[in-house]
Amino acid sequence: MELLKLNTSKSGVAFSEDLKQSAMAANSLLHSGKGAGNDFLGWVNLPSSIDKEQFDAINACAATLREKADVVICIGIGGSYLGAKAVLDAMSNPFELLHTEHKNPIVLFAGQNISEDYTAELLAATKNHSIATIVISKSGTTTEPAIAFRIIKEEIEKRYGKEEAKSRIVAITDKARGALKTLATDEGYTTFVIPDNVGGRFSVLTPVGLLPLAVGGVDIEKLVAGAAAMEAATAEGVAFEDNLAAQYAAARYALYTSGKKIEILGSYEPKLQNINEWWKQLYGESEGKDGKGIFPASVTLTADLHSMGQYIQEGERSMFETIISVEKPAYEVKVEADEANLDGLNFLAGKRLHEINKMAELGVQLAHIDGGVPNIRIEIPTIGEEAIGALLYFFEKACGISGYLIEVNPFNQPGVEAYKKNMFALLDKPGYEAESAAIKARL
Ligand code: PA5
To answer: What pLDDT, in 10s, does the model give residues 374-383?
Structure first.
């Protein structure tokens, strides 16, 4: 079974020899480590390097948390949050909470905002549940998760006592640096390490993503196997014609340089909505710098045809669309015939919803192409661990190649610091006295 297919035939891009060579050269740079940001290339060969011992350690920790808690709160933001959220949502039944019996603990997220209401409602909702937490921060100093952890740690200690709390808190952080590492060592929490050479947005296949996913019942070995298959299929030396990540990156680059500055990622499966969010961070933080980069946007279809559809069809012509298309659903639901046929839908009688969804997809694709929106299609066979693992790695590899094609360092994010400086100055953080006075005068 092929885990992923790429169809660029409706993108309007013809791959020139120059473009193919540039994409292949960019791929080689990721493997040789001679490009910008080369101290953050640990993700390139990551899937194939995860051994049984690592899986066993993660699965054992997940089993302990599953046994102790019926709600596990994952604390993190950005790359320390989006991957787990994306894959968990893709692999879960969205109506799970309505089922009275839960096979897996409920995984909730915190630290991805500083909302007082969100935090209060989370604490209230979990009051009568047994809770545990996984706190994730590579730097160990990010404000949002640090605040959430302070509150949830206190809640756990208050409920279970300091000793028991230690077995309900797991930290995933740097091996040596940061406040979270110091705290975890002092308190004796179980810890997992985020490798130095893997940046946040490329860390979904490290314990950052794998532990929360294992807690949520995802088969992480299958997920990584899918990613490893894609790692092999996009390795250095794989010809452009076979290298789907190089093709996707090359198509995006050709569209970008022809004036298409926005890429809309979409899918007709709502479970994939948070794959869009993960992808937006991956591409937005990697490419958006030095005044360059495709702006990553997303839609969930067919819902957003009734909100964004008008703009996509007839608005400013600066976008192209990439659709993740799922070949086979997990269930079967058909439209039944209705004697009165008041809604006039009997022409659909006997058809599966999937068939109707597919025709919507194909119809929209052609309409958008006619409206001047080139289309790239990524096909996965089903929403399963292996295909999702392959998709994650495919996007990561294409992202690295894309960054080198537009000649930016895809592995830094200097622009993220600006808001932090202002926020600390406004909150009178010690050391920010000069900035504090200046920024307050501007309010
Ligand atoms: O991609 C990145 O590096 C960022 O989005 C980080 O993941 C995010 O800022 C969270 O950082 P940390 O894990 O250090 O708390």
So the answer is: 999 999 999 9
